[in-house]
Amino acid sequence: MIWQNAIFRRYCQSRLRSKGLGIALLITILIAGFLFFILRAIGLDRTHLNPRDAERGVLIPLLVFQALILFVLGTAQVSGGMTAEADEGVIDYQRLLPMSPLQKVLGYLFGLPVREYVMFLSTLPFTAWGLWKGEVALGVWLPLYAIFITTTWTYHLTGLLTGTVVRNRRWAFLVSIGLVFGLYTVVPQMARFGLVFFKYLTITPVFFESMPGLLPRTAAAVVATGQKLAPEVRFFGLNLPEAVFTVFCQGGVILTFAAMLCRRWRRNESLLLGKLWAVGFFGWIQILLLGNALPLIDPGNLFPSREVARRFLAGSDWAPKAIEAVGMSGLYGMVTLLILYAMTRVITPSIDMQIRGWRRVRKQNHGSLPLFADASSSIGWVAVMASVGAFGWYVFTHALIESRWFPGHFVPLQVLAFFVVVLMSGGLGFHALLESKGGRAVALATIFVGLVPLMIGAILSTSSNRLLPAALWVSGISPISSPVYAAATLLSVSELPPDLARAAPIAFYFWLTISSVVTTGLIVRLFIVREGIAVRASGES
Amino acid sequence: MQKSTAIDIRYLRVDYGNYVAVDDLTLSVSEGEVFGLVGPNGAGKTSTFRVLATLMEPTYGEVILGGVDILENIEAARRIVGYMPDLAPVPSDLKVWEFLEFHAAAYGLGTRAQRRDRVAECLEEVGLTGQRESWCREISRGQTQRVVLAKTLLHRPKVLILDEPASGLDPLARRDLRHALRRLAATGATVFVSSHILGELAEMCSSLCVMNRGKLLASGSADDVRAQLGKNEKTITVRILARHEEAASWLGEQGSVYDLRINGQELIFGFEGTADGQADLLEGMIQMGFRMSAFQEKHSSFEDILVRVAETNRIL
């Protein structure tokens, strides 16, 4: 039980002192009460809604206020509190406590934001009144608040992870806010471009589903009508309720973040994830991306232009543009490559870790590092993830291009081979550099090879149309752009302007060849470095 | 009766990139011993202690605490270790008793009443009963050290790892710390304590070792360490009435003389050699016609030895 968790109780003691809590509660109740009474007054006395609708009017503003308390204040408190522990130095005491890593994670997860939980609870009577008097069905508010809580845990775990991994206090706060904003606000926007899964990391889908039940009847009818036009939530052939699917998506993230934290609590030097878990997590993301996207292709709901047409071109015939499909395929590949980079970063050992591992192996008279050990090379696992990613990308592209929207077009199997080469050269090159040279070299490569060419390309293409082919060539240096180039070059549906249509394939094949050669060189170098480490470990031990 | 080994360190090595913080450290400490580790800043003391406390994985080597291999069974090792870090921090948002009660609860020290009693015992042990209700952020540096020492003692660890526990303590508190450590050792606990002040450790430890730049330079009793590091080193002060520069030049040519300096009428230098050699030196000075009004010898103190060891290593 959480009540018996010493870390949780320690934070209850420090964060629920009457002085600090009293002020926090006073402000919370004042704001919640103000919202409650003024919105009821507006509903009852100004807009003359019936009492049931007037009571419902308070629910969404209260929910926003509750989200502010738990999502924003709570997450900031978790990441800031965790970093403060490290900053003060007391975190070492907690490491030594004879509690399991999971107990420690739970203690911090619920202990650090305990005041925010109490503040949230203090707003619930107002919400309860609104739900009761507004006659909101249990089936509406229960899933909404269940997802509200799981979303809170997802955000808090993100903050906790950042606070644990990033050592500098100020950076941890900024990174955690940035990560929460990025992961749960910016990344979900990709749902508009075919990567539907990402929106289920947030409360948004369930919130919009619950809206008709929470709003006054007239507004609810408008929303409900809109929702009938909106895409349904489907996962491959299954029709899952939004709340269930959100829990499923968030559950994977929560589990993975918790596993990362447990590994760090067990041993501070550990990698954030084990090799197998990382590959499983990568595969799971691919399944969710595909499971959400594929059923939406035939009805057309996956295409961004459908939403635009629905809003602005009511009644007209709509069909997706070929360039749209090419862009979506490229984006899928690019996102897969970025996730591959992230997972590679998580499972690749530093040189120090490799040396420690080798010395340990030598001490135990073994000849090689265990396959799943943190210290062992992650090159094979990166290759597996790249293959899985390429396969997912191919399945997505295949379903998109060979759908009823683009008759006569097909995606040959050789495209899969190119997708594999694109992700392998990008992923393995990144990995080989990281494992043999360390994070600093990768950071510099990311800036000068990954980002600067894209920036220069963007400037050139904006300056003049004549410079578009040059921009295309320069941008092609960046491995991040290669999935987009692959889609533009390899898909028969692709319709680029003539000068770009000439330049794009040449640039793609040229840079892919260069990238493959460089990656091969980096891999050879990696093997030499690893051999050197093994010999050095043997010699010194 | 032969005491069993409480701390067994074999070939310990800690690297930070290309920097070797601890290099091939091998030593063992018997049960019930107060063992001191001394060395200047950067000697590798804190890295060694963090490895012993299971807070850091060594690059290589083996550490057995109370029969438990800390790399193989980290959880079991943590149950028997009490660790007090250098400049021991305390949480700013807790009172002294709350901080101790939290740790007592985390270590599962019985019921609430039993925990309260144990907290009171430990506070008394470190002489802080009167500060029970104080905020951790409001007590002095020395009191903070004592609060953390009380925390370290709470679960009655078999092995205590104390990194610079005396820093910030006034002489009275240092004396109390000395007594407390001896009392603990008498109950069978093994205390591994570090300091950069050798004299301080020599007073409280039954054995000690000296480290510098990651390497173990000497270990044993205080006299053993002095002998191993200082050999027969001594400082000689000669007061000469005239011709100081000439005398200094002559002394500088003698192989057993080092670190020569002139301080007014006095020539001060280190001397490494036998009593006969020292007599020969004195005779030589007289034969050279230097008019001496005093010739005084002084054995190097622990601090002098340590400073010399540190400086020699730095040059190397």
Describe the structure.
The complex is a heterodimer of chains A (about 550) and B (about 325). With about 550 residues, chain A is mainly alpha-helical. Chain A folds into 2 domains: about 1-265, no CATH class; about 320-540, no CATH class. Chain A contains 22 helices and no strands. Chain A is flat, with a radius of gyration of 26 Å. In chain A, about 45% of the residues are buried. The mean pLDDT of chain A is about 90. Chain B has about 325 residues and is α/β, with parallel strands linked by helices. Chain B has 2 domains: about 5-230, P-loop containing nucleotide triphosphate hydrolases (Rossmann fold); about 235-300, 2-Layer Sandwich (Alpha-Beta Plaits), CATH 3.30.70.100. Helix content of chain B is about 40%, strand content about 30%. Chain B is built from 11 helices and 14 strands. A 6-stranded mixed beta sheet of chain B has the order 6-7-8-3-9-10, sandwiched between helices. A 4-stranded antiparallel beta sheet of chain B has the order 2-1-4-5, with helices on one face. In chain B, a hairpin with a 2-residue loop joins strand 9 and strand 10. In chain B, helix 3 (about 95-105) crosses helix 4 (about 110-125) and helix 4 (about 110-125) packs across helix 5. The longest helix of chain B is centred in the middle third of the chain and has 16 residues, at about 170-185. Chains A and B meet through helix 1, helix 5 and helix 16 of A and strand 1, helix 2 and helix 3 of B.
